[in-house]
UniProtKB/TrEMBL annotation:
SUPFAM superfamilies: Caspase-like (SSF52129). InterPro entries: Caspase-like_dom_sf, Metacaspase, Pept_C14_caspase. The lineage of its organism: Eukaryota, Viridiplantae, Streptophyta, Embryophyta, Tracheophyta. Residues 102-374 form the Peptidase C14 caspase domain. This is Peptidase C14 caspase domain-containing protein.
């Protein structure tokens, strides 16, 4: 099927659309663009108007980076409708300044006040930031962290669906050959039936923003569109996704299937109707578990604070084994997780006996490695 490139008139992202399509929805900002049969000056005018607004708005955002916004939410919960940020007019699409060749977006969501709240996700984001700065030399200004920490006062730093998608756009903005990008997510993940028929198992994977019940989840198709497809030649993206059902959450072309003895093969996930590749760069995802598995946070690994099992085992393995390969990283994390108890406090009473037996079980999650291209996992060094 023939295709062409068209730019979203709302956020400016360049997208590939079928040649016969006259109206399309942006996979990043979800703005609707109608392709008008107009002359070049109209398109140029719309594009220039967008960038004129963006330039003025960036000055405002730069001020926000160094000062805290006033929060008028007296309830103390930084959730779905606390900020009045959404739904926003499609013409208001904030961006952030880009800092250096190493950049990262870190998301930690606890889901305060919900029955499904987590304990370790904000700790995960904070630990990952410290790790990137101290171990790999990421500048602090190049790390954008979004959490629902109760002390967070900056409206743009709350991990809503809107803010996460805009942070993803920031991560890829002006990316060049040699750049190293990191996307880390610690929170809930889920699956749903794929409506576009581009999944081998018929299911889309998704991450859950803090406001997903009102504004929706972020599907693997959207993540791929936002941070995988635009990745240019020579640039590298690593995603560390600490969530349930996250094995193929970036919709990458190949999944590394490794057994307990360390033997592996690459499983081709490409689908005739889906473009899962990059624009020449390398995208690698390290996720908490297979698509069919769940992931937990626990204090059993750290002994004190609750953390996501993947995030903790990932950081500890890389710190303890300098110069390790992707294959060694994957097998070492799996080995650490297999022998770990869940760290749940035993319940009292006769009805708790079955639940307490879980304390003697090893964790049932296997970290996964997927990639936009095939490589030798035991000879390729892991470097961010």
């Amino acid at each position: 099927m023939a295709s062409r490139q068209e730019r979203c008139i709302h956020c400016g992202v360049l997208l590939v659309v079928p040649a016969e399509v006259n109206v399309f929805e942006c996979g990043v900002c979800h703005g609707i663009t109608q392709i008008r049969p107009s002359t070049a000056p109209w398109s140029t005018q719309a594009y220039n108007s967008f960038h004129s607004f963006t330039g003025r708005f960036r000055g405002f955002l730069n001020t926000i980076r160094s000062t805290s916004s006033v929060n008028t939410n007296s309830g103390g919960y930084y959730g779905a409708n606390s900020f009045g940020l959404y739904p926003q007019p499609h013409s208001l699409r904030p961006s952030f300044h880009v800092y250096g060749s190493k950049r990262a977006v870190l998301c930690g969501i606890r889901y305060h006040g919900k029955s499904y709240k987590l304990k370790g996700s904000i700790n995960d984001a904070k630990c990952m930031k410290y790790f990137l700065i101290k171990h790999y030399g990421f500048p602090s200004d190049s790390i954008l962290m979004l959490t629902d920490d109760m002390e967070e006062r900056n409206q743009l730093r709350i991990p809503t669906r809107y803010n996460i998608l805009m942070a993803m756009r920031w991560l890829l903005e002006n990316t060049q050959s040699g750049d190293s990008l990191v996307f880390h997510f610690s929170g809930h993940g889920t699956q749903q039936i794929s409506m576009d028929g581009n999944e081998i198992d018929g299911l889309d994977e998704a991450i859950c923003p803090v406001d997903y019940e009102e504004q929706g989840k972020i599907l693997d198709d959207e993540i791929n569109t936002a941070i995988v497809r635009p990745l240019p030649s020579g640039a590298k993206l690593h995603a560390i996704v600490d969530a349930c059902h996250s094995g193929t959450v970036l919709d990458l072309s190949f999944v590394c299937k490794m057994n307990r003895e360390g033997y592996y093969s690459w499983e081709d996930q490409r689908f005739p109707r889906a473009n899962k590749g990059t624009s020449g760069g390398l995208a690698v995802s390290i996720s908490a578990c297979e698509d069919s598995q769940t992931s937990i946070d626990t204090s059993a690994l750290s002994g004190t604070e609750a953390t996501g099992v993947l995030t903790y085992s990932f950081i500890q393995t890389v710190q303890n084994e300098p110069g390790l390969s992707y294959g060694r990283l994957l097998s070492a994390m799996r080995s650490t997780i297999r022998g770990t108890k869940t760290g749940i406090v035993p319940l009292n009473g006769p009805i708790a006996s079955m639940f307490n037996r879980l304390l003697g079980m090893e964790l049932r999650q296997e970290p996964q490695l997927s990639s936009s291209e095939v490589f030798d996992v035991y000879t390729s060094p892991f470097v961010l």
